Amino acid sequence: MAAQSPGPSADGLVGIAVSYDMGWQKRGRGHNSSTGHGAAMGLATGKVVSYSTRCKTCRVCSNDKPTGKGKKHDCRKNHWGSSKAMERDVACELWNKAPESGVKFSVYVGDDDSTTLADLKNKVPYGPTLLMPRDP
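RE: above sequence
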């Protein structure tokens, strides 16, 4: 299996095979962590080709809530769902952002997470053409 297609497809995008996974800042499965990071690594190079983070809390916002006064700050809170939902949210963001760089993530290698696979199929216009589970 080739890790990258020989040239651009009909839509002008080069297909890249990537491995994707999400990590959290708590030990274990981390499904109750307030922060997480996801990355897509190229199978041919092993290098990170795209990444994103999710954060469910902001100390400044939390401290301002009792007073009701909103202090201007660079708020990093960008996730309001469960910690487990971070993984599929980041995956869809990375897949949807890839065409801005002239590529598409055409081959997905990842853990056997059915919700991430379903979201990639339903929420990404070009969708991965081949889905291969990676051993845990």
